[in-house]
Amino acid sequence: MQNNQQNNENLENDISLNSDNNSNNNSLFLDTLLSIDKLIIKKEQKELNSQQEVVKEIDNETGLLKIKFITLEKLIQFLTSSNRFDDGIAKSFIYTFQKILSAKELLSILEQKITSNFIIDSEKSSKFNEIVEYSVQIPTRKNAIQFLKSWIKTNPTPFISNKALLTQTEKLVNDHIKSISQEEANSINELLAKNKKLLDPFIHDSAFNLDQLPKSILPENLHNIKMIDIDPEEFARQLSLFFSLAFNSIQIPELLHQKWVSEILIREEAENIYKCFYVFNSIQSWVIQSILNNEDAKIRANYISHSIQIAHRCFELNNFYALFAIMSGLQSDSIFRLRNSWEHVSVEQKRQFDKLTTVVNPANNYRKYRQILSEINFPCIPFLDLILYDISLIESEHETFHEKNKKLINLKKLSAISKIVEFMQLCQLSIYKFRLVQAIHTYLDSLQPKSNFDEFLEISLKLEPKAIYQDKFCAQKCSTPRLRESISESGLILKDELAEQDKIVSDEDDEDDYLLFYDKNKKKYQIQAAIVKMLVKFLTKPRSSDQEFLQTFLLTYRSFTSPSELLNLLKERCIEEPPEDCQGANLEIFKKNQSLTKLKVFNVLNHWIKSHFYDFINDPSIIEEVQSFIENTKQIPGLEKPSEQLGDLLKKKQENQKKKVEYSKSIIFPKPILPKTTTNLKTTDIDPLELARQVALIEFDLYKAIQPKECLGEGWLKPDKETRAPNIIKMTEMFNKIGVWIAGEIVAPEKPKSRAAMISYFIKFSQKCNELNNFNSIQEVIAGLTNSAVHRLKKTWELVPPRQIELYQEMQRYLATDDNSKFYRETLKSRNPPCIPYLGVYFTDLVFIGNGNRDFISSKNGSKELINFEKRRKISTVISDIQTYQQMPYFFEKVPEIFNFIMDSISNSKDSKAIYSLSLIREPREKKKVN
């Protein structure tokens, strides 16, 4: 209370009364404010939680309840409300708010909160609610000022880069904040002045005491500079100043909206990131070109050694961006293949190269580099591409807004991004204190990146035609493939193929256990083939989140293993032991990764049970094994909660299997079209639309029952098809029966006119099926009408109205197989569920994939047969399509009289031979005329 009283006293000048009140009245007024302090807090808390504008969750690390989603309005209220300024949330928002609104918009919101006046009439000041409302404003202003101050201190770049914003801020400080608190106004003005100096685009020598700066190591000739002439130490210093210019110019909005990914907008909206790419590529190209410009292998070796020394000095200065640029040049194909040149490099330099290679090694998500980065002191220039990659990863895995309420901001996501942005800004504000050597800077500034690295390779091949790749210089300590020069036109190493590849494999993986391929469409490496143990390892790899791989695996794994074996492999992943030589820091890393692996195993099990529970229904022993696994893992620290959650999910799924599915009462079913009488019911007594509805209910139940495993190995074509694909067979049999039933219904009437009327009826029925997206029944009608017993009825078809013939021909387009059933496929994609696709097209696709792709592929050295996972990926795409339409049922009311009539009619229908015989009776074959 004393703190609140002090705050009120500090802001006493903010109190506005319409009439002259004596000090006693003011004192009484302030006492009243203090007495209702707790009530104010309760009032604010009620406002914050009652509108469903805040979503909270338990933090796994602290066990505390934290905000996960919040609307912008509530977030601003939260940050400027009484007793509620949260420095952590404020910092996260300050670094990332430009994902949601502009700096000008945020400043306007704060200005409104700071400058708004709430005037209380002294005669009505006793009104309780009015006093409460006013009392909230005092600390709100204080917190709004505190937030503005924190913003300028934490993220000053918007104020420096935008003169209009700076002017608006200075006006706010001088016109309003000064009258509230002179001390706060002075503090904010000092911050603005200080940050102007810190973020000056170029720090000259005059900014420091020259006596404190290290003396420059200048080359003898400053007019015609070559790399070899400049001392490695001095070159590293100048490179640090040179890279700082580009790196420090990057603005936070460039990071937040992933503008660097867009090829069109990169120059305009991520200009400074583009500059960094340009500088990086220039240095990389310069290293390669400087070496290749020499015909003598010994001279090339000198340049290689000199480059290694410069890279080492950059490493010592924490200029990692320059280090990666130089190393990517040395590790390029055109340089690394120069066997004769490398032989002249000293052993000491080769060792130094090996050490630096481990730093830039992308293995385990750049584990070595990240470890070094976590322990460095500033100044520092980090590897920008990895920062961009980390932001991209967060962006791809988390939405900015709640999926069901786009007003709710994902505060957890903003917090994760803000940590990266905060580190980057700390790097930008750290300054290298070296003397600028203008001649070297002019030289560096003249460098340009090479767009075509093939030209470098051609020169390299001319210099050493017989040279081959040699791994003895660096690959002995780094089995991970080297960084390559395959940088996109924008210069983005973030998309570096080898870094992408390393997300899938690691140093300890046996290269003969897998094959990878580069997917040009998705711009990343994919698993082409692997042994089953490696597939499970990919599935449960820490820090990997490939939902497509998980879905493909769970949809198709039965084609190469069993549920029991899969469960055993997942359990093995939880009990893996560290290698014998794994000690110290490496052991700690292993333990951390193993903990993450265990959580990933639970994630896979959760998805397996949730989305593929049929595997467990069909094999109760698997349920028992999972239950046993859950009980055992409950005792392991860190797995108590995941084990409990998995047990609850398993129990819930078992209970749901016993329950009958009941639809919400809020769903309104269309009113059935009942026949006038159900006594002696005939097909034509049923309205075509209601017949289509009841048939849809029958067929959807059959369609929904099809399980992914039935689609594997063309089981529906095998001798044991009833066992391997029981539900596919049931639906196929129903398809055939309905087609035969339709043919029988048409042939049954004696009179041609009645038979023509039946044809018209079923054409109308097919139209209604089309309206209900039941493509399977459309094909059944066509199968019935094209049945030889019906097709031959020439006299009958002559009596079918032309309009019905046109509609029939239109329906036949769905059966057309020209251009790979293009018309049907495009129509299906354009329709929304509920829907029953025609299974025949899916089966054709699956047979085509099965015949055109081998189940196994030989490993690199031919010693192993690897599971062709790319084939499974193609099969998974088809199965996923089938599953898409299994989710949404038809909401029609089942009419027992019609439903049972259809089922009985289908069951009691004559077979094809009998129907054809009857067709011959109805319209006998015409006798051939004898000439």
TrEMBL record:
<feature type="domain" description="Ras-GEF">
    <location>
        <begin position="687"/>
        <end position="925"/>
    </location>
</feature>
<dbReference type="Pfam" id="PF00617">
    <property type="entry name" value="RasGEF"/>
</dbReference>
<protein>
    <submittedName>
        <fullName>Guanine nucleotide exchange factor</fullName>
    </submittedName>
</protein>
<feature type="domain" description="Ras-GEF">
    <location>
        <begin position="231"/>
        <end position="466"/>
    </location>
</feature>
<dbReference type="GO" id="GO:0007265">
    <property type="term" value="P:Ras protein signal transduction"/>
</dbReference>
<dbReference type="InterPro" id="IPR023578">
    <property type="entry name" value="Ras_GEF_dom_sf"/>
</dbReference>
<feature type="coiled-coil region">
    <location>
        <begin position="1"/>
        <end position="61"/>
    </location>
</feature>
<dbReference type="InterPro" id="IPR036964">
    <property type="entry name" value="RASGEF_cat_dom_sf"/>
</dbReference>
<feature type="domain" description="N-terminal Ras-GEF">
    <location>
        <begin position="523"/>
        <end position="654"/>
    </location>
</feature>
<dbReference type="InterPro" id="IPR001895">
    <property type="entry name" value="RASGEF_cat_dom"/>
</dbReference>
<keyword id="KW-0175">Coiled coil</keyword>
<dbReference type="InterPro" id="IPR019804">
    <property type="entry name" value="Ras_G-nucl-exch_fac_CS"/>
</dbReference>
<dbReference type="GO" id="GO:0005085">
    <property type="term" value="F:guanyl-nucleotide exchange factor activity"/>
</dbReference>
<dbReference type="Pfam" id="PF00618">
    <property type="entry name" value="RasGEF_N"/>
</dbReference>
<dbReference type="InterPro" id="IPR000651">
    <property type="entry name" value="Ras-like_Gua-exchang_fac_N"/>
</dbReference>
<keyword id="KW-0344">Guanine-nucleotide releasing factor</keyword>
<feature type="domain" description="N-terminal Ras-GEF">
    <location>
        <begin position="63"/>
        <end position="196"/>
    </location>
</feature>
<dbReference type="InterPro" id="IPR008937">
    <property type="entry name" value="Ras-like_GEF"/>
</dbReference>
<dbReference type="GO" id="GO:0005886">
    <property type="term" value="C:plasma membrane"/>
</dbReference>
